[in-house]
Amino acid sequence: MSEWLVLTLAMAAACAVVLTIVVINNRRIPEDDDPSETPDVIEYMTMMIGVIYAIVLGLAIAGVWEARGAAQETVRQEAQAMHEISARAEVYPQAVREGIRADVDAYVSYVVHDEWTYMSEHGELSDQGTALLKRVRRSVTDYQPANDFEGQAYQPLVDQVAAADDARGARGQSAGATMPGVVWFGLIIGALVTVGLIFTLQIRRTGRELLLAGLFSVLIAFLLFLIWDFDAPFGRGISATATPFTDLFPQLTR
User: Fold this and answer.
1) Is 90 strand, coil or helix?
2) Considering the entire predicted model, what is its pTM?
3) How far is CA 99 from CA 2, 22, 43, 74, 86, in A?
4) What is the radius of gyration, based on Cα positions, of the chain?
5) pLDDT, tens digit, for every residue of 38-58?
6) The organism sits in which domain of life (predicted)?
7) Cβ of 56: how many Cβ atoms within 10 Å?
8) Alpha-carbon distance 110 to 103, whole Å?
9) d(Cα 150, Cα 146) in Å, to the nearest integer?
């Protein structure tokens, strides 16, 4: 199911539930009821709870957005390290150089075309990707430099392999959801409480009041969807991309 369809259904459902409750609740209010009799303390509590929940929503959105940015940065670091390995292998003999570059290309191609989908579906790295990175490591470390010039390039190549492995590990840690379940429990309960409190203000069936109640519920639903969409940096619509790999290895995307 498309995520835009999920968003539309969620906002429509939230709006429909709130408006339905308003209409049903309005029928039970006696004709002589005076909405101006709402205690001031209820209006104050409604305002304060709304402000607190808005702060919590803002912190949650900032948290998942920061996690997405960190995930994208790990992808850039991994892609840059693989590019450096391919470029620095230039000092090695042709056979060795081509072998290292072939292993690097095989790894990058698998990450872009296969592992990205695997991460979104399983929330973890694939064993095949790990095996391909080990092959790159063996290609670099198993070669014995033949002279000082090659020896000077050997350690930086090994360091770049370690950097790629470290970035890959960080990418794996970001593959799943970043928000703990208890936080989601608090966000959902807070949404129900915040939306529920608007019924204490004796909303009438006027167009203006129904419109505001509907828009308020739609806004809450949209913000919760936004947090959910950002929560999996590699798994949903607004997610980290493999663009750093495709930019540095354009030949693999043709």
Assistant:
1) helix
2) 0.76
3) 42, 70, 72, 26, 10
4) 27
5) 566 667 777 888 888 889 888
6) Bacteria
7) 16
8) 11
9) 6
Q: How far apart are CA 9 and CA 234, in angstroms?
A: 23
Tokens of 170: 């960080």
* Residue carrying the six token digits 């939230």: 14
Q: Smallest Cα–Cα separation from 33: which of 196, 198, 197, 203?
A: 203
pLDDT digits (tens, 9 = 90+) for 137-180: 999 888 888 888 888 888 989 999 999 999 999 888 887 777 88
**132 exposed, middle or buried (CB, 10 Å; 0-12, 13-18, 19+)?**
buried
Tokens standing for residue 143: 């070669």
Cβ atoms 200, 206 nearer than 8 A:
no
Rounded CA separation 252/134 (Å) = 20
Tokens 């807070």 label which residue?
190
- Distance (Å, whole) CA 248 – CA 80: 8
Residue 131: its H or E element: helix 127-141
